[in-house]
Write a structure and sequence with these properties.
The structure is a homodimer.
Chain A (H helix, E strand, L loop, with lengths): L4 H10 L7 H14 L1 H17 L1 E2 L6 E2 L10 H5 L2 E5 L2 H10 L5 E4 L17 H10 L4 E4 L5 H16 L3 E4 L15 H9 L2 E3 L3
Parallel strand pairs in A: 3-4, 3-5, 5-6
Antiparallel strand pairs in A: 1-2, 6-7
The complex binds zinc ion (2 copies).
One zinc ion binds next to loops of chain B.
Protein backbone atom coordinates (compact mmCIF):
# COMPACT_ATOMS: atom_id res chain seq x y z
CA UNK A 1 0.00 0.00 0.00
CA UNK A 2 1.26 3.45 -0.93
CA UNK A 3 1.13 6.16 1.68
CA UNK A 4 0.78 9.76 0.51
CA UNK A 5 4.14 11.10 -0.76
CA UNK A 6 4.23 13.80 1.94
CA UNK A 7 3.74 11.18 4.66
CA UNK A 8 6.36 8.89 3.12
CA UNK A 9 8.85 11.74 2.96
CA UNK A 10 8.15 12.68 6.60
CA UNK A 11 8.78 9.08 7.68
CA UNK A 12 12.06 9.01 5.71
CA UNK A 13 13.15 12.37 7.12
CA UNK A 14 12.41 11.33 10.72
CA UNK A 15 14.88 8.46 10.37
CA UNK A 16 17.72 10.99 10.53
CA UNK A 17 17.10 11.14 14.29
CA UNK A 18 19.40 8.92 16.38
CA UNK A 19 17.69 5.73 17.54
CA UNK A 20 14.70 6.17 15.22
CA UNK A 21 14.11 3.23 12.85
CA UNK A 22 11.38 2.75 10.20
CA UNK A 23 8.76 1.57 12.69
CA UNK A 24 9.12 4.42 15.18
CA UNK A 25 9.47 6.96 12.35
CA UNK A 26 6.09 5.78 11.09
CA UNK A 27 4.59 5.99 14.56
CA UNK A 28 6.00 9.52 14.99
CA UNK A 29 4.69 10.69 11.60
CA UNK A 30 1.18 9.43 12.28
CA UNK A 31 1.09 10.87 15.78
CA UNK A 32 2.29 14.28 14.58
CA UNK A 33 -0.28 14.40 11.77
CA UNK A 34 -3.14 13.02 13.84
CA UNK A 35 -2.67 14.90 17.08
CA UNK A 36 0.36 17.21 17.13
CA UNK A 37 0.21 19.48 14.13
CA UNK A 38 1.15 22.56 16.10
CA UNK A 39 4.01 20.67 17.70
CA UNK A 40 5.16 19.56 14.26
CA UNK A 41 5.16 23.15 13.02
CA UNK A 42 7.05 24.27 16.10
CA UNK A 43 9.61 21.51 15.53
CA UNK A 44 10.03 22.51 11.87
CA UNK A 45 10.60 26.09 12.95
CA UNK A 46 13.05 25.11 15.72
CA UNK A 47 15.06 22.94 13.33
CA UNK A 48 15.28 25.70 10.74
CA UNK A 49 16.26 28.32 13.32
CA UNK A 50 18.83 26.12 15.02
CA UNK A 51 20.50 25.05 11.76
CA UNK A 52 20.57 28.67 10.66
CA UNK A 53 21.79 30.28 13.88
CA UNK A 54 23.88 27.75 15.76
CA UNK A 55 27.57 27.68 14.96
CA UNK A 56 30.69 27.09 17.00
CA UNK A 57 32.26 29.18 19.75
CA UNK A 58 35.42 30.87 18.44
CA UNK A 59 37.28 30.00 21.65
CA UNK A 60 36.11 26.55 22.69
CA UNK A 61 34.33 25.21 19.55
CA UNK A 62 31.13 24.25 21.41
CA UNK A 63 27.73 24.77 19.76
CA UNK A 64 26.46 28.30 20.32
CA UNK A 65 24.68 31.02 18.42
CA UNK A 66 27.04 33.83 19.48
CA UNK A 67 30.69 34.20 18.41
CA UNK A 68 31.73 33.36 21.98
CA UNK A 69 29.76 30.98 24.22
CA UNK A 70 28.45 31.95 27.68
CA UNK A 71 31.18 30.00 29.48
CA UNK A 72 34.07 31.42 27.45
CA UNK A 73 32.69 34.93 27.93
CA UNK A 74 32.52 34.57 31.72
CA UNK A 75 35.29 36.69 33.42
CA UNK A 76 35.74 34.38 36.45
CA UNK A 77 36.06 31.40 34.17
CA UNK A 78 38.64 33.23 32.09
CA UNK A 79 40.67 34.01 35.21
CA UNK A 80 40.49 30.44 36.52
CA UNK A 81 43.47 29.35 34.42
CA UNK A 82 41.79 25.93 34.01
CA UNK A 83 41.01 24.41 30.63
CA UNK A 84 39.03 21.17 30.44
CA UNK A 85 39.22 19.20 27.19
CA UNK A 86 36.08 17.26 26.23
CA UNK A 87 34.84 15.50 23.12
CA UNK A 88 31.32 16.94 22.78
CA UNK A 89 29.00 19.78 23.89
CA UNK A 90 26.96 17.15 25.76
CA UNK A 91 30.06 16.44 27.87
CA UNK A 92 30.25 20.14 28.80
CA UNK A 93 26.62 19.97 29.98
CA UNK A 94 27.27 16.82 31.99
CA UNK A 95 30.31 18.37 33.74
CA UNK A 96 28.49 21.66 34.38
CA UNK A 97 25.73 19.70 36.12
CA UNK A 98 28.21 18.39 38.72
CA UNK A 99 28.88 21.99 39.82
CA UNK A 100 32.47 20.94 40.60
CA UNK A 101 34.29 22.77 37.87
CA UNK A 102 34.52 26.52 37.33
CA UNK A 103 37.02 26.78 34.51
CA UNK A 104 36.74 26.90 30.76
CA UNK A 105 36.45 24.12 28.18
CA UNK A 106 37.82 23.13 24.84
CA UNK A 107 35.41 20.99 22.87
CA UNK A 108 37.06 18.71 20.32
CA UNK A 109 33.77 17.82 18.59
CA UNK A 110 35.14 14.32 18.23
CA UNK A 111 38.38 12.45 18.88
CA UNK A 112 41.46 11.38 16.95
CA UNK A 113 40.58 8.48 14.69
CA UNK A 114 43.26 7.85 12.07
CA UNK A 115 41.25 5.00 10.52
CA UNK A 116 38.41 7.42 9.79
CA UNK A 117 40.85 10.07 8.58
CA UNK A 118 40.25 12.27 11.61
CA UNK A 119 43.54 13.95 12.47
CA UNK A 120 44.62 16.66 14.95
CA UNK A 121 43.36 19.61 12.89
CA UNK A 122 39.93 18.03 12.41
CA UNK A 123 39.40 18.20 16.16
CA UNK A 124 40.87 21.70 16.49
CA UNK A 125 44.21 20.77 18.03
CA UNK A 126 45.95 23.46 15.95
CA UNK A 127 43.64 26.05 17.56
CA UNK A 128 44.28 24.48 20.96
CA UNK A 129 48.09 24.59 20.49
CA UNK A 130 47.74 28.27 19.62
CA UNK A 131 45.74 28.92 22.79
CA UNK A 132 48.25 27.02 24.94
CA UNK A 133 51.06 29.29 23.78
CA UNK A 134 49.15 32.58 23.94
CA UNK A 135 47.00 32.28 27.07
CA UNK A 136 47.76 32.07 30.78
CA UNK A 137 46.66 28.49 31.34
CA UNK A 138 47.75 26.85 34.61
CA UNK A 139 46.20 23.45 34.17
CA UNK A 140 44.71 21.34 31.46
CA UNK A 141 42.19 18.71 32.53
CA UNK A 142 41.80 15.91 30.03
CA UNK A 143 38.19 14.72 30.12
CA UNK A 144 37.98 12.81 26.86
CA UNK A 145 36.06 9.53 27.01
CA UNK A 146 37.83 6.51 28.56
CA UNK A 147 37.74 4.67 25.23
CA UNK A 148 40.69 3.70 23.03
CA UNK A 149 40.24 6.81 20.85
CA UNK A 150 39.59 9.08 23.84
CA UNK A 151 42.75 7.86 25.58
CA UNK A 152 44.83 8.30 22.42
CA UNK A 153 43.46 11.82 22.04
CA UNK A 154 44.22 12.62 25.70
CA UNK A 155 47.74 11.30 25.22
CA UNK A 156 48.27 13.50 22.18
CA UNK A 157 47.03 16.61 23.99
CA UNK A 158 49.14 15.80 27.06
CA UNK A 159 52.16 15.95 24.77
CA UNK A 160 51.07 19.36 23.40
CA UNK A 161 50.69 20.59 26.97
CA UNK A 162 54.07 19.20 27.98
CA UNK A 163 55.71 21.14 25.15
CA UNK A 164 53.96 24.29 26.37
CA UNK A 165 55.06 23.52 29.98
CA UNK A 166 51.49 23.38 31.27
CA UNK A 167 50.47 21.10 34.10
CA UNK A 168 48.12 18.44 32.82
CA UNK A 169 45.69 16.11 34.59
CA UNK A 170 43.37 13.32 33.51
CA UNK A 171 39.99 12.91 35.21
CA UNK A 172 40.03 9.88 37.46
CA UNK A 173 38.68 6.60 36.26
CA UNK A 174 35.62 6.72 38.43
CA UNK A 175 34.05 6.86 35.00
CA UNK A 176 33.36 3.27 33.90
CA UNK A 177 35.87 2.18 31.28
CA UNK A 178 34.20 1.90 27.87
CA UNK A 179 31.38 4.20 28.94
CA UNK A 180 30.53 7.57 27.52
CA UNK A 181 30.81 10.67 29.66
CA UNK A 182 27.42 11.96 28.60
CA UNK A 183 25.65 9.04 30.26
CA UNK A 184 27.56 8.96 33.55
CA UNK A 185 25.70 9.98 36.70
CA UNK A 186 26.62 13.25 38.42
CA UNK A 187 28.19 11.71 41.55
CA UNK A 188 30.57 9.53 39.54
CA UNK A 189 31.51 12.43 37.33
CA UNK A 190 32.08 14.61 40.42
CA UNK A 191 34.40 11.94 41.90
CA UNK A 192 36.23 11.75 38.62
CA UNK A 193 36.94 15.46 38.82
CA UNK A 194 37.99 15.63 42.46
CA UNK A 195 40.18 12.52 42.02
CA UNK A 196 41.99 13.76 38.93
CA UNK A 197 45.71 12.95 38.76
CA UNK A 198 48.57 15.17 37.65
CA UNK A 199 50.31 13.75 34.58
CA UNK A 200 54.08 14.00 35.23
CA UNK A 201 56.17 15.43 32.46
CA UNK A 202 58.67 12.68 31.56
CA UNK B 1 24.68 26.24 32.48
CA UNK B 2 22.60 27.94 29.83
CA UNK B 3 22.52 26.45 26.37
CA UNK B 4 21.98 28.82 23.45
CA UNK B 5 18.26 29.74 23.13
CA UNK B 6 18.01 28.13 19.67
CA UNK B 7 19.40 24.84 21.03
CA UNK B 8 17.09 24.97 24.07
CA UNK B 9 14.10 25.56 21.83
CA UNK B 10 15.11 22.68 19.56
CA UNK B 11 15.37 20.34 22.58
CA UNK B 12 11.93 21.48 23.79
CA UNK B 13 10.39 21.08 20.36
CA UNK B 14 11.81 17.56 19.89
CA UNK B 15 9.95 16.44 23.02
CA UNK B 16 6.70 16.56 21.02
CA UNK B 17 7.80 13.28 19.42
CA UNK B 18 6.31 10.16 21.04
CA UNK B 19 8.76 8.37 23.33
CA UNK B 20 11.26 11.25 23.35
CA UNK B 21 12.11 12.57 26.83
CA UNK B 22 14.47 15.40 27.86
CA UNK B 23 17.61 13.26 27.67
CA UNK B 24 17.02 11.84 24.20
CA UNK B 25 15.76 15.21 22.93
CA UNK B 26 19.12 16.67 24.00
CA UNK B 27 21.02 13.85 22.34
CA UNK B 28 19.00 14.33 19.13
CA UNK B 29 19.54 18.10 19.11
CA UNK B 30 23.31 17.78 19.52
CA UNK B 31 23.59 15.05 16.92
CA UNK B 32 21.57 17.03 14.39
CA UNK B 33 23.64 20.18 14.94
CA UNK B 34 26.99 18.39 15.08
CA UNK B 35 26.60 15.93 12.24
CA UNK B 36 23.21 16.03 10.49
CA UNK B 37 22.48 19.60 9.46
CA UNK B 38 21.23 18.61 6.04
CA UNK B 39 19.06 15.92 7.60
CA UNK B 40 17.68 18.51 10.02
CA UNK B 41 16.79 20.85 7.16
CA UNK B 42 15.16 18.00 5.26
CA UNK B 43 13.15 17.11 8.37
CA UNK B 44 12.02 20.72 8.84
CA UNK B 45 10.90 20.81 5.22
CA UNK B 46 9.10 17.44 5.46
CA UNK B 47 7.26 18.52 8.61
CA UNK B 48 6.13 21.78 7.04
CA UNK B 49 5.02 20.08 3.82
CA UNK B 50 3.20 17.26 5.59
CA UNK B 51 1.33 19.57 7.97
CA UNK B 52 0.38 21.78 5.05
CA UNK B 53 -0.67 19.09 2.57
CA UNK B 54 -1.92 16.10 4.51
CA UNK B 55 -5.59 16.06 5.40
CA UNK B 56 -8.22 13.35 5.65
CA UNK B 57 -9.77 11.19 2.95
CA UNK B 58 -13.36 12.32 2.32
CA UNK B 59 -14.54 8.70 2.23
CA UNK B 60 -12.55 6.83 4.88
CA UNK B 61 -10.97 9.63 6.98
CA UNK B 62 -7.43 8.24 6.75
CA UNK B 63 -4.49 10.62 6.37
CA UNK B 64 -3.89 11.55 2.73
CA UNK B 65 -2.99 14.55 0.65
CA UNK B 66 -5.69 14.02 -1.98
CA UNK B 67 -9.46 14.38 -1.43
CA UNK B 68 -9.80 10.61 -1.79
CA UNK B 69 -7.08 8.16 -0.70
CA UNK B 70 -5.53 5.53 -3.00
CA UNK B 71 -7.53 2.70 -1.47
CA UNK B 72 -10.91 4.44 -1.63
CA UNK B 73 -10.21 5.46 -5.24
CA UNK B 74 -9.46 1.86 -6.31
CA UNK B 75 -12.33 0.44 -8.48
CA UNK B 76 -11.88 -3.21 -7.39
CA UNK B 77 -11.91 -2.15 -3.75
CA UNK B 78 -15.06 -0.14 -4.32
CA UNK B 79 -16.76 -3.18 -5.87
CA UNK B 80 -15.69 -5.54 -3.08
CA UNK B 81 -18.63 -4.57 -0.88
CA UNK B 82 -16.37 -4.98 2.18
CA UNK B 83 -15.74 -2.21 4.71
CA UNK B 84 -13.22 -2.71 7.49
CA UNK B 85 -13.44 -0.39 10.50
CA UNK B 86 -10.14 0.48 12.19
CA UNK B 87 -9.00 3.03 14.75
CA UNK B 88 -5.93 4.51 13.04
CA UNK B 89 -4.10 4.87 9.70
CA UNK B 90 -1.35 2.66 11.18
CA UNK B 91 -3.93 -0.13 11.50
CA UNK B 92 -4.71 0.20 7.78
CA UNK B 93 -1.01 -0.22 7.01
CA UNK B 94 -0.75 -3.27 9.26
CA UNK B 95 -3.76 -4.95 7.61
CA UNK B 96 -2.55 -4.07 4.11
CA UNK B 97 0.75 -5.75 4.91
CA UNK B 98 -1.02 -9.06 5.50
CA UNK B 99 -2.21 -9.00 1.86
CA UNK B 100 -5.36 -10.82 3.04
CA UNK B 101 -7.90 -8.05 2.61
CA UNK B 102 -8.96 -6.38 -0.62
CA UNK B 103 -11.84 -4.20 0.52
CA UNK B 104 -12.12 -0.64 1.73
CA UNK B 105 -11.62 0.88 5.18
CA UNK B 106 -13.20 3.37 7.49
CA UNK B 107 -10.70 4.98 9.85
CA UNK B 108 -12.18 6.26 13.09
CA UNK B 109 -9.03 8.23 14.07
CA UNK B 110 -9.71 7.14 17.65
CA UNK B 111 -12.39 5.30 19.58
CA UNK B 112 -15.42 6.15 21.68
CA UNK B 113 -14.33 7.48 25.05
CA UNK B 114 -17.15 9.19 26.95
CA UNK B 115 -14.84 10.09 29.85
CA UNK B 116 -12.66 12.11 27.46
CA UNK B 117 -15.72 13.61 25.79
CA UNK B 118 -15.18 11.62 22.58
CA UNK B 119 -18.58 10.71 21.21
CA UNK B 120 -19.84 9.09 17.96
CA UNK B 121 -19.49 12.20 15.80
CA UNK B 122 -15.91 12.80 16.94
CA UNK B 123 -14.93 9.48 15.37
CA UNK B 124 -17.01 10.03 12.23
CA UNK B 125 -19.87 7.64 13.01
CA UNK B 126 -22.37 10.09 11.52
CA UNK B 127 -20.44 9.90 8.24
CA UNK B 128 -20.28 6.13 8.57
CA UNK B 129 -24.04 5.83 9.16
CA UNK B 130 -24.58 7.91 6.03
CA UNK B 131 -22.35 5.58 4.01
CA UNK B 132 -24.10 2.48 5.36
CA UNK B 133 -27.45 3.73 4.08
CA UNK B 134 -26.25 5.04 0.71
CA UNK B 135 -23.65 2.49 -0.43
CA UNK B 136 -23.84 -1.15 -1.44
CA UNK B 137 -21.97 -2.66 1.50
CA UNK B 138 -22.24 -6.44 1.98
CA UNK B 139 -20.11 -6.85 5.07
CA UNK B 140 -18.60 -4.74 7.79
CA UNK B 141 -15.48 -6.09 9.49
CA UNK B 142 -14.87 -4.60 12.92
CA UNK B 143 -11.11 -4.36 13.48
CA UNK B 144 -10.99 -1.92 16.39
CA UNK B 145 -8.48 -2.76 19.12
CA UNK B 146 -9.35 -5.46 21.66
CA UNK B 147 -9.39 -2.89 24.49
CA UNK B 148 -12.36 -1.75 26.57
CA UNK B 149 -12.83 1.33 24.37
CA UNK B 150 -12.23 -0.60 21.16
CA UNK B 151 -14.80 -3.22 22.13
CA UNK B 152 -17.36 -0.56 23.09
CA UNK B 153 -16.78 1.19 19.78
CA UNK B 154 -17.14 -2.09 17.86
CA UNK B 155 -20.35 -2.76 19.75
CA UNK B 156 -21.76 0.66 18.85
CA UNK B 157 -20.93 0.21 15.15
CA UNK B 158 -22.36 -3.32 15.11
CA UNK B 159 -25.66 -1.76 16.21
CA UNK B 160 -25.48 0.83 13.39
CA UNK B 161 -24.87 -2.00 10.93
CA UNK B 162 -27.72 -4.08 12.34
CA UNK B 163 -30.10 -1.15 11.78
CA UNK B 164 -28.87 -0.91 8.19
CA UNK B 165 -29.26 -4.69 7.78
CA UNK B 166 -25.60 -5.22 6.94
CA UNK B 167 -23.74 -8.40 7.90
CA UNK B 168 -21.08 -7.62 10.49
CA UNK B 169 -18.04 -9.55 11.69
CA UNK B 170 -15.34 -9.00 14.30
CA UNK B 171 -11.73 -10.03 13.62
CA UNK B 172 -10.67 -13.04 15.69
CA UNK B 173 -8.60 -12.50 18.82
CA UNK B 174 -6.38 -15.17 20.27
CA UNK B 175 -2.85 -16.41 20.72
CA UNK B 176 -0.52 -14.76 18.17
CA UNK B 177 0.81 -17.14 15.52
CA UNK B 178 4.31 -18.18 16.55
CA UNK B 179 3.71 -17.00 20.10
CA UNK B 180 4.11 -19.20 23.15
CA UNK B 181 1.07 -19.79 25.35
CA UNK B 182 3.15 -19.21 28.46
CA UNK B 183 3.85 -15.59 27.53
CA UNK B 184 0.41 -14.61 26.33
CA UNK B 185 -1.57 -12.32 28.63
CA UNK B 186 -4.71 -13.58 30.37
CA UNK B 187 -7.18 -11.50 28.38
CA UNK B 188 -5.78 -12.81 25.08
CA UNK B 189 -5.82 -16.37 26.36
CA UNK B 190 -9.39 -15.87 27.51
CA UNK B 191 -10.33 -14.70 24.00
CA UNK B 192 -8.49 -17.69 22.53
CA UNK B 193 -10.63 -20.05 24.63
CA UNK B 194 -13.98 -18.39 24.16
CA UNK B 195 -13.31 -18.07 20.41
CA UNK B 196 -12.20 -21.68 19.96
CA UNK B 197 -13.28 -23.49 16.81
CA UNK B 198 -14.51 -27.04 16.55
CA UNK B 199 -12.20 -29.22 14.50
CA UNK B 200 -14.37 -31.29 12.21
CA UNK B 201 -13.62 -34.99 12.11
CA UNK B 202 -12.87 -35.80 8.49
ZN1 LIG C 1 33.18 28.79 24.20
ZN1 LIG D 1 -9.98 6.74 1.84
Amino acid sequence: MQLSPAIQELIQALKVLPGVGPKSAQRMAFQLLERQREGAQRLAQALTQAVEKVGHCNDCRTLTESPQCVICAHPARQQSGMLCIVETPADVLAIEQTGQYQGRYFVLMGHLSPLDGIGPEDIGLDVLAQRLSSEAIQEIILATNPTVEGEATAHYIAELARQAHIKTSRIAHGVPVGGELEYVDQATLGHAFSGRKIIEAN
